[in-house]
Design goal:
The chain is mainly alpha-helical and 208 residues long. It folds into two domains: 105 residues, no CATH class; 90 residues. The longest helix is centred in the C-terminal third of the chain and has 14 residues.
Length: 208
């Protein structure tokens, strides 16, 4: 049985970490699976696994990250989730990484910092919070982001993720907005949600 099949008997870790990384990287470039290797490392050498997954020379690309996502329990037993997910989201399979971060740590105060590493990251995170039933977290993040970045495309993201059922969310978001800039920008995106748009038109004159 070979190293890529999970046989670690011919490497002495952590001394042979470079050999392990080079072998895994070469196999990955050929399209080979990392699953058996990562399973063996998770069971026998979780520290070496952490180095491969999130170290300075971590294996990058969607396939490598998806292999890492299979062994999250072992990784989180060795390292803290915040830096782990921040690193993974930069390396590949970013939508899957963010979704799993929300599923595993719905109250993590670091989720926003992970999301902001992605284009339209706060919009993605709000959509995930809504899908998971975390309405308060979604409202707080959406309001805060719109105040900082009025042109953030929340409506297209949420319409694509939730469809017409997301209009009640926009109505609940309106009272949380504090500036006219944020309110005007949101109203301009709400053509498909006339009730929420009408509510914003009503409250805008009283905003500063």
């Amino acid at each position: 049985m070979s190293l890529m099949e999970g046989d670690l008997s011919h490497v002495a870790l952590p001394a042979d970490l470079e050999i392990l990384r080079d072998t895994a990287g070469a196999a990955l470039s050929r399209g080979a699976s990392l699953d058996a290797l990562y399973d063996a490392l998770a069971a026998e050498h979780p520290v070496a696994l952490v180095d491969l997954v999130m170290g300075p020379r971590a294996l990058a690309g969607d396939a490598a990250v998806r292999a890492a996502l299979r062994v999250l329990d072992a990784l989180e037993s060795t390292t803290r989730p915040a830096p782990l997910f921040r690193r993974l989201v930069e390396l590949g399979a970013s939508d899957e990484v963010l979704a799993l971060a929300v599923a595993r740590h719905p109250d993590g105060d670091w989720l926003e910092s992970v999301a902001r590493r992605l284009e339209d990251g706060p919009c993605r995170l709000v959509a995930l919070h809504i899908a998971a039933g975390h309405e308060t977290a979604a409202l707080e993040l959406a309001a805060r982001t719109l105040e900082e970045q009025p042109d953030a495309p929340f409506v297209p993201w949420l319409a694509a993720a939730c469809g017409p059922e997301c209009e009640p969310f926009f109505r609940k978001l309106v009272p949380r907005l504090r500036s006219k800039d944020a309110a005007r920008a949101l109203r301009g995106q709400l053509q498909l949600f006339p009730n929420a748009q009408a509510l914003l038109t009503l409250v805008l004159p009283g905003m500063v």
